[in-house]
Amino acid sequence: PKANSSRFYRFLMCTHCVGSVLMVFAIVKFCVEHITNLHLFLTGLSLGLGFATIIQKIICLTIYRDNLFELHDTLAHTFAQDYNNVEMKPILMSPFSTFYRPSQVMVGIAWAGMAMYWSVPIVLILVQLSKGESVIKYGLPFPSSFPWPISTNKWVYAGLYIFEVYTSTCLAIFTVAVDSLFGYYIFQISGQLRTLSHRIQNLDSRDNHRKVIIECVSRHQTLTRCQESLERIYGPIVLWLSVASAMVLCALIYQAAHLNPNKAIMVVPYFVVKAGQSLFYGWCGTALSAENDHFREAIYASDWAGSGEKALMTNILIMLIYNKPFVLKACSVTTISVEMFIAISNTAISYYFMLRTLEETK
C-alpha cells in the first residue's frame, strides 16, 4: 500500500472500480434477459459475483486505508528487528514457503482461467472463418449484455472485447493481490510468534529473564493489535467471500453437471480459484491460531515451575496472563478457520441439491 499515492494512481483505482461496476451491470442485464433459463442465469451469476467481490474489496481497503498503513508499517518494523538478527532470521523465515507456494498456485490458476475465457471467442471466430462463413457471429469472453448489438460491427466488438479483457485482468490482479496480502501479513505474524517461542524455550541462566520476558510480552501485545487490525480490515471481505463463494460454487457445480465434459472443463479453473480462496483464508486463520498455541506451549515448556526462581516464575505467569488466543473473526459472525471452508462447501452442495429439487418439481 502507498501512503502518499499520486493522482495517476488514484485515477487508475477509480478506473478499475468503474470498469468492474460496468461489467456487473452488463452481467446483471444478461441474467435478467435469461432469467427463465436457469443454466444461463447461473452462468452470469457466478461471474457477476466475482466482479462484485472486487468492488467490495476496493471499498473495504479504501475505508480502512489508515488501518492498513498502520498494520503494514508496524509489522514491517517488528519483522525487520528479527530479520536483522542472525540467530532469529532462519526461524522467522521458516514458514515462508508454506505461505508462498499456495499464493503462487492461485496466481497460476487464476491467469490460466482468464486465458481460457479470452481465447474461446477468438477460437470460435477462427473456426467460422475456416469454414468460410459469410456472416461471422461474434462472442464475448463473459456472459454479458450491452445496450447495443455487437454482431454487425467488428469495431464495436473489438472495443467490447478489449474492455472485458481489461476488466477481467483487474479481476485476476485484485483477487490474487488482496488474498496474497492477507497471507503475507499472517506469515509475518506467524514468523514472529516462532521467534518468541524460540526465545522463551532457550532462556539461559545468564540471561536477564525479566528483560527478555518484558520484550516478549511487549512484542506479543503488538502482534495482538496487528491481529485485531487485520480482523477489522479483512473481516468484511471474508464475510462477503464466505457467502458469495457458496453461491458461486453452487452455480459452477450446476453448470458442470449440465454440460458435456469438453465444455465443463471451462468451469474447472474458476471453481478451483473460488474454492482455493475460501480454503486459503480459512487455512491462514487456522495457521495463526496454531502458532499462538505453540507459543503458549513454549511458555509452559520453559521449565519455569521447577526452576525455583521466584522472579522467573512471576514473569512467566505475567506472560501467560497477557497471552490471549489469536482467533480471527469475520465481523464477529464466523471464525476464519478451515471449518469455515467446510461450512462453505456444505452450503454450496446444499444449494445445488435444492436447485435439483426445484428442477424435478417443474
UniProtKB/TrEMBL annotation:
<dbReference type="GO" id="GO:0004984">
    <property type="term" value="F:olfactory receptor activity"/>
</dbReference>
<dbReference type="GO" id="GO:0005886">
    <property type="term" value="C:plasma membrane"/>
</dbReference>
<keyword id="KW-1133">Transmembrane helix</keyword>
<protein>
    <submittedName>
        <fullName>Odorant receptor</fullName>
    </submittedName>
</protein>
<feature type="transmembrane region" description="Helical">
    <location>
        <begin position="326"/>
        <end position="353"/>
    </location>
</feature>
<keyword id="KW-0807">Transducer</keyword>
<feature type="transmembrane region" description="Helical">
    <location>
        <begin position="105"/>
        <end position="127"/>
    </location>
</feature>
<dbReference type="Pfam" id="PF02949">
    <property type="entry name" value="7tm_6"/>
</dbReference>
<feature type="transmembrane region" description="Helical">
    <location>
        <begin position="160"/>
        <end position="187"/>
    </location>
</feature>
<feature type="transmembrane region" description="Helical">
    <location>
        <begin position="40"/>
        <end position="64"/>
    </location>
</feature>
<keyword id="KW-0552">Olfaction</keyword>
<dbReference type="GO" id="GO:0005549">
    <property type="term" value="F:odorant binding"/>
</dbReference>
<keyword id="KW-0812">Transmembrane</keyword>
<dbReference type="InterPro" id="IPR004117">
    <property type="entry name" value="7tm6_olfct_rcpt"/>
</dbReference>
<feature type="transmembrane region" description="Helical">
    <location>
        <begin position="237"/>
        <end position="257"/>
    </location>
</feature>
<feature type="transmembrane region" description="Helical">
    <location>
        <begin position="6"/>
        <end position="28"/>
    </location>
</feature>
<keyword id="KW-0675">Receptor</keyword>
<keyword id="KW-0472">Membrane</keyword>
<keyword id="KW-0716">Sensory transduction</keyword>
<dbReference type="GO" id="GO:0007165">
    <property type="term" value="P:signal transduction"/>
</dbReference>
